[in-house]
Amino acid sequence: MEISVIPVILVCSILALLSAGYYANQVLSLKVDSKSSGLSEDKISRLKEISGAISEGAMAFLSQEYKYVAGFAAVFTILIFFVLDNSATPDVNEGLYSAIAFVTGAVISSVCAFLGMRIATAGNVRTTIAATKSITDAFRVAFNSGAVMGFGLTGLAVLGMLAIVMLFRHLIPESIEQHYIMEMVAGFGLGGSTVALFGRVGGGIYTKAADVGADLVGKVEAGIPEDDPRNPAVIADNVGDNVGDIAGMGADLFGSCAEATCAALVIGATSAALAGNIDALLYPLLISAVGIPICLITAMFARLKANATQVEPTLRGQLIISTVLMSVAIYFATNWAMIDSFDLGSMTVTRNGVLASVLSGLWAGMLIGYMTERYTSHGFKHVRRLAAASDKGPAINIIYGLSLGYESAVVPVIAIALTTYISWTYAGMYGIAMSAIGMISTIATGLTIDAYGPVSDNAGGIAEMAELPKQVRERTDLLDAAGNTTAAIGKGFAIGSAVLTALALFAAFLTRAHFESLNMLSPMVFAGLFVGGVLPFLFTAQTMLAVGRAAEGMIVEVRRQFREIPGLLEGKAKADYRRCVAISTKSALQEMIAPAILVLFAPMVVGVIFGVEALAGLLAGSLISGVVMALSTSNSGGGWDNAKKYIEKTEGKGTEKHKAAVVGDTVGDPFKDTSGPSLNILMKLMAILSLVFVPFFQSAHEWLLQALGM
Amino acid sequence: MEISVIPVILVCSILALLSAGYYANQVLSLKVDSKSSGLSEDKISRLKEISGAISEGAMAFLSQEYKYVAGFAAVFTILIFFVLDNSATPDVNEGLYSAIAFVTGAVISSVCAFLGMRIATAGNVRTTIAATKSITDAFRVAFNSGAVMGFGLTGLAVLGMLAIVMLFRHLIPESIEQHYIMEMVAGFGLGGSTVALFGRVGGGIYTKAADVGADLVGKVEAGIPEDDPRNPAVIADNVGDNVGDIAGMGADLFGSCAEATCAALVIGATSAALAGNIDALLYPLLISAVGIPICLITAMFARLKANATQVEPTLRGQLIISTVLMSVAIYFATNWAMIDSFDLGSMTVTRNGVLASVLSGLWAGMLIGYMTERYTSHGFKHVRRLAAASDKGPAINIIYGLSLGYESAVVPVIAIALTTYISWTYAGMYGIAMSAIGMISTIATGLTIDAYGPVSDNAGGIAEMAELPKQVRERTDLLDAAGNTTAAIGKGFAIGSAVLTALALFAAFLTRAHFESLNMLSPMVFAGLFVGGVLPFLFTAQTMLAVGRAAEGMIVEVRRQFREIPGLLEGKAKADYRRCVAISTKSALQEMIAPAILVLFAPMVVGVIFGVEALAGLLAGSLISGVVMALSTSNSGGGWDNAKKYIEKTEGKGTEKHKAAVVGDTVGDPFKDTSGPSLNILMKLMAILSLVFVPFFQSAHEWLLQALGM
Predict the structure, then answer these.
(1) How far apart are CA B620 and CA B607, in angstroms?
(2) Distance separating alpha carbons of residues A247 and B297, to the nearest angstrom
(3) Whole-complex ipTM
(4) pTM of the model
(5) How far is A580 from chain B (nearest CA, A)?
(6) Can you name the residues that pair with B348 across neighbouring β-strands?
(7) Any alpha helices (H) in A344-393, and if so which ranges?
(8) Helices (H) and strands (E) in chain A, counts
(9) What whole-number distance in Å separates Cα of residue B544 and Cα of residue B204?
(10) Residue A498 sits at the chain B interface (C-beta within 8 Å)
């Protein structure tokens, strides 16, 4: 046991970056020209034009978003720099270090989203081209595009955190206790989470405003098919897929990874035994790092047979293989790096306790994914029952769809409760953080599959818009169908890890606030629980209405173009795609202001005015109802979507039953792609904000009480 | 201060019963004959026939329901008798006394519901007859019918509890401490709550199965108007109004009143000072008793001018007047009966602390009522915005309606959090129970107004079915419109009081389990919180699907009658109303089994297997998400209903916009009349079950641990 974990983490993260580079090269080496595709020059230039427009739109959104992020982060950096000051550590400028960590986290997260979008918007058209040859080729291109995101993001996240930890340990005097250092490292998580706020909430509004806008005017009013180039919102719709599922999902999972690790570091460093053993201290990072080679091995199994009729088993196999392999890897990594036992507060944690925590998180993630599929795939009874009930009209479809979502939350919540119970019992609050890390330890595989979805979806859209042969669209449809299911599973997974991460951050916050226990039977805590419990509902209302309003703006613009551009509907004139992209971008960023303020200010206001106890209640309350709302909105949405698809597959379009199903699907759009995923951010961001700002809340609250003479 | 509170409570409750008798006489003295009404003999016999059918249907449901209740209560009585045994009180057969209290509570609650249904089904046709004369007369009959329920129920509840307390104090040896006696009295609340389970859940399914069934086949398929006698489900629909809003609401509020009082008695009696002073001990009962004369005075202001164009201000005035007067009464009652200060656990509670608790509850109820009206009446912006958005189709209507409900919960939850904070801070857990009692201290007025609704609604239905002159229907419509708003307010009020009551029971449960504090940062508690948080969602799904399935049965039957009874649609043959009534009754009672099992067994299973700590977490979690779900489903439903009505009023029926609004209204039906109100029962029943069975859970759990060798 001569080797330290540091080189191992370093090697793994560099391996991840090299793999990302390899996959990127695989994708980009495919030329978009007629020679290598056999398509006519005409078609090639059309393909280039369309994918160029999507790419341009995606970058337009990102650059706008980053302007907001930059402005916002600047304000936050200044705030962190000035208000964070811990009297216990007079020798260190806590604000400065926290600010450095914050900026690093925000920048790395932004870079990940940028690279992910770049490769996805290059991979989409190449998937289309590969689909002219075979389904196997097309699958490989889409999968490789996803893998760039999966491995690139994981590598950068692990490398970034390792760098910050080592840098701070180097710069900060040795006299300062490790746990103070880790509290400053936590700024990294806050940085990642801030970007995720814009990515998930802003991106979520963008994608559904464009989708709903395109559908309601294009499909319903004008009667033109999905992805028809005459629809002015069609490019915005395709951009939206990337904005939501690449940039948004990436930032969300980056946040979970960074925040869970920060939480584990903050809690772990309070134990003298861990703080004194760098290998054991960096154990959380090691788990994430070890996941990288595991996911690489897993990726080698991702092959599709030439005559494949469905892609789902392959993708599902990825999750199962990575989970099984990861279990073994975790066992060895824990036995190698973790010490026999250590004291944490008043309890003694054993190595096996830590192992149990990590494994329970990992397998709970699997279970949540499985239940998500059961409730959202039309291979199972719930979606079929929803589809069957649709013949009684839209109202019954809505009732069944909502019920499906509510019910679907039961088993995942019990799984989360069980994980919480196991890890907390056997490894204290450190265990909770480690269970979150366990759940996202296969993040590279998860992200690969997630990012695969919008690439396939876009590939189909591009094939449609470029009017390629029907066979091409059929192949991309096959790819896309699997993407829908894995997107739902990915969402369940993201929610599960967000809850555990938020709980870990909550634990770290309590550790930092020196709460050994928190009496629920206190007026402040209980009042906080009530108010916290209502926040996810308010936030859901805000984000749903935001989509409604943003979609309205899009509807007005599409109608205007149909009216004012002569020959557009006949296919003789070109639509002004850019205006639609600009409208989506602008309204998404505007509409996210209100929910963002809620998330950012609720903990601030409660923490300063009512104190840290009330804030603890607020956070716990928001978790308790937030997890159910997130799961049920995502799964209702997924259920409605697939019930509609099932009806289309078995009975076709145009019937009253199908119309009823379309109503559910439209309600489900903001449910599953805006409100549900955004709740992840609500839970995590409120918790990490509280963690980072604890000392400020405490001093400001005391000052306030004194000023009021209380 | 020579008089004891006992005669005062006694006099007030007898006053309530006398008033109920007076109001009943006022209603029943109105003859249903052609002489006193000026209607033809033909019309009179038609009126008698219709109202007879409704009355018969209502009694058919009640008698079926009571069979279930009786069987269920018998099992429960045996269970209570055998498992409740407190080793601390060897001289008393705790099971026996608890069982006596349980049966008494169940019987009184059933009697109240029975009497309420009797008077409502006699009052409806008399309101119709009075409406042939003037709106003032009609209003008075409907109001008086409601008052019978309001005062009768309050009087019986207070009298019943006084009797049980005095009886137990008389029978049980003086050596037994008062708080043990009060723990046995708590069985009374459980009895009331059990009846409420059947009334609210079974009744809620009944009313909406009949309503949705009647509407979907009658209005939508056959194209005949609401309340048309050709519709076979029309009597079931009218019966349903009574079943839901008279029997269900009555049992719910009876439960809140009984349970909150029991909680206050259990907690209060742990204080030696209160236990030693009968006046102070019975103070909770005194507050409910004093509400009776206050509500009687308030009722004298319930007059409608002859040329009145709306009834809402009169009814709203009732709530405001009773709240203002009650505030004064509470002040004097508290100064009279409550002692200067007393010790409760480790805190000292002052008289002013108690006063603050009661008043905060009373006024929080007012605020919740006000906010409910703001969000569900089409006089305000939220419903108007929902109506306006309906022109973009049913999906947007659903999105806006759900958002409206989510948003509407924010202020009420903050009000509840504030009340919790104030009462808990100033009067400990006793304060929480007293705030609940404060909120329902004007219950007689609240119930009067609630019961007024279905009477007016039925009166309109009867006028329609008997084909009375248009003017009559217009007058009853005027009465009914106000009933809709007050029904929404009543629901908000019932939810608020249910939450506070549940919280009070939770406090009493913790007191009985000897929890001085409950560490939220324990694995068991937190896991319990998570699982508790998902229960309201599961319960909502169950009750919504129950309505869906029950309505399907009704739809099949109505279609069958239209098909098989020749001449029915032409009005030449008579529909078989009884079969529809029988179907509603049967399916409602069948469909309530699953949600009932959830409510009854969840605390049992968790308490015995995981222990009282986990159960505490479960209860708290179910409250945190339950209150938001209850408020938001009720208000979404109310909003959809009134948005539809607003569109009908301003733009008429038949447009696409109206159709979209009908979709929302249909989704809202089970939301507001089944799932939302049923959640009250979920919250309260789980809490009182836990309170009553604490000693059993503790001993069974210990036994289990030993058996497992843990």
Answers:
(1) 14
(2) 65
(3) 0.93
(4) 0.94
(5) 20
(6) B343
(7) 351-376, 381-389
(8) 26, 2
(9) 10
(10) no
